[in-house]
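Input.
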Amino acid sequence: MRTRRLCGIMGIGLLLGVWLGGIQGAKAQESSETIRIVGEGGEEKASDTQTGEATPTEATPEKPQAKKEGDTQALEKIVVTATKTPRNPDDIPASITVVTSKDIEQQNIQTVDQALKQVPGTTVRRGKGLGDTLANVNLRGFPSSNQTRTLALLDGQTIASGYTNSAYWAGIPVDDIDRIEVVRGPFSALYGGNAMGGVINIITKTPKKLEMAANVGYGRYDYWNYYLSAGNRFWDKLSLKASYTYQYTSGYPTNLVQRTASTGASATRVTGFIPTTTTTNTPTYRIGDTGDNSSYTSTVATKLSWDIADGHKLDFNVQMNWNEYGYGQWHTYLRNLANGSPVATGTARLGDSALRFSTLRESNFLSGDGREHAVIYNLNSEHRLTESTNLKLRGGLMNQPHNWYTSAGTTAFRGGGPGELNSTPSKLWSGEVQIEQALGTRHALTGGVAIQADEANSKVYQLENWRNPDSKLDLTSQSGGRDFILGFYLQDEITWHPMFSTVVGARLDRWKTYDGMFQLAQGTPIEHLKAREEVSFNPKAAFLFRPYDWMSWRASVGTTFRPPNVYELYRTWRSSTGSIYKGNPKLSPEKAVSWELGTTLKPFTGNVITATFFDNHISDLIYRVDDKTDPTGRTSIYKNSARARIMGLEVEMTQQVFSWLNLFGNLTMVDARILKDDYDPEIRGKKIAYVPRQQINFGFNAKYWIFNYNMSGRYVSKMTVRDDNADWVNGVYGSYDPFFTLDAKLTVTPVKYFNVSFSVDNMLNRQYYYYYPTPGRTFWVQAGLKY
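Output.
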């Protein structure tokens, strides 16, 4: 990792040399001609022809740029995710939030999911920073663990894995993002499965001229971040952009070692143990940790945008990401009372008590390494066939050829010994053909055909040396399978009156799962599972009523579904304790009926108030339950066992107080509960796992002269992860505590092309657990060049 960091530093130096030379060459070609840009209130400002930016003679908010030289029209806000067509968000009956690149720059954002944490109705779960490979995002209270019920896209292409369909947040550089469109609510009528809570579409930057950037940042826990990019537009037809991102942290101890104690014979007397409890209040003791959790991620991204001819355009993106994590020297907290030496093996007596830890092993303190490698390909083309007809084509692949982790066996030690390798490569193909047809001035039809195919195969190998993933021995177990979705959709946007419009649509999906198999243990036969298929039809209707320019009302109702993923269908494995966790090839898709009612008010200049009530009724919710066919009670299996209801309220307000000061605040309240479970009636009325009941975000951004200061506060209430809600204890390893944090960032731009920033996250140094112990107060210093 140190070698990669050195290479990154050398790369920055090389690119800066080329970059500075490019700036001088570009400056020599700049024209002194100016154009006019009309800002808010009709005020005109002179701007440089090359950059199109207002002359920074006073501290004023940035004004919209003109589309072309000489154009005096301010750019209109446009989103594409809600209807799959370019629309002003004020004209769409949906709950929409747009996170812009400027919003991201004003905060200390290191991963894409962190950019969403202040969006109302959004729950971001990242417990230990860069090293958290299980980070995820859900919308509207729909939970996510080994599945996702929120669809995540990159320029319209899904970034879900073919294994669990969870989004691959690690592989997208935040500096490449132009904006993130978050559309909440049921969208299976347009996007098919996995869009139960909504859709998140990450849209990357396309250069309009010569653009180059370089950033270097450093933070607590030896956290380094390097970013380099260059792009240009040639012949006013072809845009090219390439970027490289490298992030590394030496980390801190995130995996804690805990043991229960029992009575027994005499043993070595020790001290240093820390009394604690489990999340269900069972007494236990903390005796060590597995070492600093180091992690790195490296991403190469390229984008090509070609205006082939008038009305014909092609975009091609490739994102290649490598992510790896590991652990440093483990620590035992136990010390021999007689001589103070560390104790990690044998039998240890807790001081003068009758309790003891039996059969301590070095392997108790060992955590394995892991690696992911993913490549995302995305090809889009748009063609204007007639003045009223557009054709869009899209194809993509999310390929994860490497996704593995190692674990140490019971007789392993720091330097080696036996272990296991779990490897699950996966692929997800997708494609779409879409037609947009205007019928007069009132109707805009959108229809299309979409396909998606998932494939994943999980294999477990014995390792001769748990530190070396290439020392594979026998294959001990395996599982895998495929699924395929074919969907047809049609949508009609109807403008009945300037004050009233509707969007109605429906989608028919045929879902099929096949080639399923599993082998539970070495020497047992491979079980091949039958193929099966189901059909899902999902309509939706949405209404927008805007009686005044400052007031609008919206309502929608629709159905949505989520097909089970390959993990839930086929992943069957046995734990080290002998418990069996089974997939279920007989699972059916989850279904939901959802409706919402909301309003947006703009009572005076600079003020926007939005409120939305939503209600989701879910059937066939997939839950892991005890397998009643196993008399030992040591087997669990996924079942369509539950009905649930998720209802909530989102309230948001923004206020531009002065030209240099903006305030924001939002509140999300969710009541997500199980209504019925056929396999466990006792969980009726319990809260759904991984869903906080309240979230509050607030803050401000102040910009004056060369300074920009952003501060935000965030409160998230407690989450439970057990279906019986028995994990109520806070402040212990494995709990999801309620927390409140304050974050701040100061950015200084002394000259046009250079800025420096200083950030502090968790300013109050709140100590809490988000399963893992969180990092506490952290700082970040960054310097950037942008042309």
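Residues 404 and 423 are 4 Å apart (CA to CA).
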